[in-house]
Amino acid sequence: MYLHPEAASAGAPSRDVLLVSAIITVSLSVTIVLCGICQWCQRKLGKRYKTSLETVGTPDSSRGRSEKKTIKLPAGGKAVNTAPVPGQPPHDESDRKTEPRSSVSDLVNSLTSEMLMLSPGSEDDEGHDGISRENLGRIQFSVGYNFQESTLTVKIMKAQELPAKDFSGTSDPFVKIYLLPDKKHKLETKVKRKNLNPHWNETFLFEGFPYEKVVQRVLYLQVLDYDRFSRNDPIGEVSIPLNKVDLTQMQTFWKDLKPCSDGSGSRGELLLSLCYNPSANSIVVNIIKARNLKAMDIGGTSDPYVKVWLMYKDKRVEKKKTVVMKRCLNPVFNESFAFDIPTERLRETTIVITVMDKDRLSRNDVIGKIYLSWKSGPGEVKHWKDMIARPRQAVAQWHQLKA
Question: Residue 10 — φ and ψ, nearest 5°?
């Protein structure tokens, strides 16, 4: 039987169809091979990156010398500040035994936070909000107990990134050591002058303390800024229950400093404005109002007024103050003060604003302070720069009062 050529070709696939099928097959094969190569590269790079992270070390802290100091405690022994105890690891080894806040974890956390894109309303948003809070720095210390001699050893090593509390943009930090609930007796480190990253390396021995009493204590460290002419300013605190620490060997910790629980972190806020007139060489400070001031009197209120000091190179030049507002935690002042400040002195000038509680029978109490200059805290520096950037305009801003 004879078949027409077109009919015969209709039952078999054409050359074009076979060619397209071959191309698709080859493309799929190449894609699968490339995916395999990509995954292999990622695993290799990941291992190499992990190895490089593991080689990062912690900063060394073996600086400074310690002196002997003894305080007798009626609660069961004496506390001694002495040189490193025999048998304790040297400074280099103790610095390597840090808590999770090591340089490796810091590096990983910073890289992770930069790579992650947080979705709106996610739980991690709270952590990012915390970055805007004031950084009080952190402190490194170690704790251990000698069972044979019934002695608790506390070593204060160093601190990092402490905030500036003085007019000069620095601090004079030292550390108070307590064993709560006994806050009557305390030990102190030496003062480190003009240092925001101090190294103490001082060892304190609490001798004659039975282990049963030690585990009932809370180690409390308070970092303060030494002030020769007024009350020392608290910087931050750390507390750690000793029943949660393995005291059989010296344990080294890095702890972030928290606002002091004596109320220094909740002293209220003050709204004020600054107006800079370069042609008249003057700054006008307007004390507008305050809110949520800390109660300093027995009746749960205060009698606030505001002192304004003009400082030049850490020297007091001129003082002015508002009237006293009786029994008020949210006073409205609306008082302005003008200060003559030559332009060439502006960089070395600091305006210190102190909210006081008037007391008729005793010394007036300090509720809180604000230091305004180009080298103060972030909020204060912003206000100062805004004032200079907008001459002849009153620039207002709320400020948190500090101890």
Answer: -70, -25
